[in-house]
Amino acid sequence: MSKSARLLRPWSAARAARWVLACTVFALGGNPAFAAAASVGLAGKFGDQALLVIDGGAPRTLRIGQTVQGVKLLALSDQQATVEVSGQKMQLGLGAAPLSVGATAAQRTVLFARSNGQFVTECRINGELLRMMVDTGATRITLSREQAQRLGLNLQNGRASAVNTANGTIPATLIDLDKVRVGHIELHNVPALVINTPMPYALLGMSFLQRVNMQHDGDRMTLSPRY
Question: 0.85 exceeded by the pTM?
């Protein structure tokens, strides 16, 4: 067999796997542990240590100045921690949903509370503008029938339902919204509830909120996309 023929012979599976692993380690700076975290959250605080959940794994304890999985703890208080990941500084609220490291400032949406503590924002449903109030107690996005009609939503294909309130049972319709946009974040096929009673604001419920990262810090709420 010629030298060129030997160079062109097929690799064994084991040899190919070793080559892929070597390239992967090289791309990560020689050590797979240096791969940047994709999400990080503050689960608790023990003295001068923060309890961080990184990429959904087991909680890790860090002191200020320490780095684990590319996450460096910069500051720690009773209710929040400041970390740095890949040169990006992030503030984590205690018990808040983990933040996506990949979300840039341009991708985050920041809401500010009104004097009564409510977060009200302009949203777009299927491209139409609607003012909504954040309500983590609402299972779905909730609209009145009048609001749904103004948006041009088709309720004929919805599913009949009912909602129990202090004033009795209210007829309702379950539908799916094609597009819901809040600031820079747009989600598709979002479940919603249309009720037969007037509402001052539509409710931005958990059918939207549970699909984004949400951090609540005093009168400030930050929403960022999940990856």
Answer: no
